[in-house]
Amino acid sequence: FKLPSDYFKYLNWCDIEEHDVRGNQLHCPRVREGPSEEELFFRGEEHTLKKRKQVTDTEKRQRKLQENWENCAELNLSFQDLGDLYQMENFKRILQRLIRVEKLWLVDNSLTDLSAIRLPRCRELNVNKNHFTSFKQLPKIPQIQHLSLAENNIMTLSGISDFRHTPLESLILKRNPCEFQERYRQLVFSSLPNLKMLDGIPKLPEDCSPPDIRVFFKMCTIL
Fold it and tell me: What does the alpha-carbon distance between residue 16 and residue 5 come to, in Å, rounded to a whole number?
């Protein structure tokens, strides 16, 4: 027998009737849309369709006000299962509205490119376990202080200097291919002079390379 909760398992929190909860009151909302009607039919879950209805323009405006993403200061949108393209489009629509968010977690969302997104007040961003391959694919985060990129696929440090003019203090790049680059820590700290901590380890004296260190490494001494 189906449990009563089965009728609600694919509903977004905005679609549940008789409540006045707004987006800025939630720290971990489920924003992923439910499966298509065709997919529900093949799953044998067409009983959930009775909860769906045609949304009017007035209801769309009311939903936008109820989501209230513009006033979110701290938000966790991790593990949203964004495998389909339409899921990603809806997800980016929400990100574009986060104009006041200061702490944002987007862990394990199969993200590849958020370069069109701007988060003007974001101070802490966690995008661990995604599919970023370059710093250029990250959102615009001019006020970033703590950035975590662990377990992505960033191959090189190209583009990291774009954060030179931000207040970035802490950076995590663990389990990215760039971590195995020769003189990895020295290169990161030379690109980001204001950085205080890399991969959980504070800046050490040996992380500060002299200006002519690159010339030294290119020289070959024959005895």
Answer: 12
Identify whether the C-beta of residue 123 lies closer than 8 Å to the C-beta of residue 104: no
Question: Residue 195, Cβ neighbours under 10 Å: how many?
Answer: 20
**Cβ proximity of 159 and 182 under 8 Å:** no
Round to whole Å and give the CA distance between 87 and 93. 10
Determine the Cα–Cα distance for residues 168 and 196; give it in Å rounded to an integer.
Answer: 8
Dump pLDDT digits (tens) for 39-95.
777 777 666 655 555 667 777 788 888 889 999 999 999 999 887 777 898 899 999
Q: Structural domains in the chain? A: 8-203 (3.80.10.10)
Residues in Cβ contact with 95 at an 8 Å cutoff, skipping those fewer than 6 apart = 114, 117, 119, 139
